């Protein structure tokens, strides 16, 4: 069965950086597109970034474009989200998704 485990969240000051990881198992990772979503309190879950199977094509929400970078390592069955220039509005639980499945999420809090 699909298992997705996020890590790397935490508390960071505005302008800081974090790198999220999503360890995947139970499915053909290298054959699957992968995504990051986030959900802030009181808000719907929103798509943050998408990466194709080879990592050659990516998509970013306008709100994170130029600040976040999605990547993957097919040899390690792991996807990443490098987040730079973080803003308080980036505060949310971040989830990775694949094959209609979700991880448990990792909390990112941007605050001084």
Task: Write structural notes for this entry.
The protein contains no helices and 11 strands. It has 112 residues and is mainly β. Strands 2, 4, 5, 6, 9, 10 and 11 form a 7-stranded mixed β-sheet that branches. Strands 1-3-8-7 form a 4-stranded antiparallel β-sheet, with no helix packed on it. The mean pLDDT is 97.
Summarize the structure.
The chain contains no helices and 11 strands. The chain has strands spanning about 5, 10, 20-25, 35-40, 45-50, 60, 70-75, 80-85, 90-100, 100, 105-110.
Query: What is the straight-line distance between the termini?
Result: 40 Å
**Topology as a string of helices (H) and strands (E):** EEEEEEEEEEE
What general outline do the C-alpha atoms trace? globular
Q: Which runs of at least 5 residues are low in confidence (pLDDT < 50)?
A: none
Helix content estimate: under 10%
């Amino acid at each position: 069965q699909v298992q997705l485990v996020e890590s790397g969240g935490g508390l960071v000051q505005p302008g800081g950086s974090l790198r999220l990881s999503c360890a995947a198992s139970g499915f053909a990772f290298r054959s699957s597109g992968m995504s990051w979503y986030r959900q802030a309190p009181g808000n719907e879950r929103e798509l943050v970034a998408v990466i194709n199977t080879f990592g050659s094509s990516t998509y970013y929400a306008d709100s994170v474009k130029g600040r976040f970078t999605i990547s993957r390592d097919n040899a390690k069955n792991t996807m990443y989200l490098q987040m730079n220039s973080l803003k308080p509005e980036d505060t949310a639980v971040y989830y990775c998704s694949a094959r209609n499945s979700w991880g448990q999420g990792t909390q990112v809090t941007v605050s001084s």
